[in-house]
Amino acid sequence: MNKIGPPELDDRLSTGASPYILDIRPRKSYQRSHIDGSQNVPVYNDLRRGDDAELRQSLSQIPADEPVVTVCKAGVVARKATTVLEEEGYEAVTLAGGMRRWSGYQNGSLGYRLASFVRRALP
After folding, report:
1. pLDDT tens-digit series, residues 10-37
2. Which domains does the chain have, with CATH numbers?
3. Helix (H, G, I), strand (E, B) or coil at 35
4. Can you give the pTM of this predicted structure?
């Protein structure tokens, strides 16, 4: 399964090669903060429990003719959404680290910078 990091997603968003961003977090979490242009299909709790029926029923809301980036809190549950989308023929990737990493990237937090350094330093 493929992932995309915040810097690469940010580059795509700024160059107009924007993918469809599917934020699966609960509506209240999405309303507090989200990536500009993202769409919310709140199936996080269902997928966390292993139930993908609601996501499969929501596929008509997700364009099949463009790449999809799935987003959740930390990237773990979004991987399940990415798997479902891939099974259904979508070109999909997961935002690595989810909104936590995206927020750290956007804010230039020390934690994000240190984690990025460590990821680059390790083989």
Report:
1. 999 988 878 999 999 999 999 999 999 9
2. 3-121 (3.40.250.10)
3. coil
4. 0.87
